[in-house]
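Appendix C. Worked example: Kinase A inhibitor
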Amino acid sequence: MVTDTVLDYGDRALLLQFDNTAEVLAWTAALRDAALPGVVDIVPASRTVLVKLDSARYQGATRQRLRKLQVRPESVPTAPPGDRIDVVIDVVYDGADLAEVADYTGLTIAQVINAHTATPWRVGFGGFAPGFAYLVGGDPRLMIPRRSEPRTAVPAGAVGLAGEFSGIYPRRSPGGGS
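Step 2, the predicted output written as structure tokens:
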């Protein structure tokens, strides 16, 4: 797997662009495993990976190393690395959108709940607000579009679905998930 889009992001970073989150996760894992000289941080997002560098002198060499990096989608870890732990979060499924999600997916409310809890989710990347993590790896039947008009206030602790992601709002904030 190769990315054709590598952009300079200032003189101390490169921005890699991808078509989907699976590619982002595969490249993030490969970059972490490669431990390239001069790389001080790797910041994944929905369709990009930002590679932050110690100084401008690493930019050209890192760009060349990226072309040689072997990245395979199947190399994305399905389980957290050994130094990470599973976190179990109790969820009360009684939100106002639950019936809408069931209608949209063609599932019953019980099937929506089962689909959301039956597959482990993992943090894909940090989100739009401090403490918000976009969770990936859920049941594809739960892919629903973001709300056309985001809510101005979603309560802290609410669980949302939007596109291929789920997330837990860490504090009261605006949000477009259902």
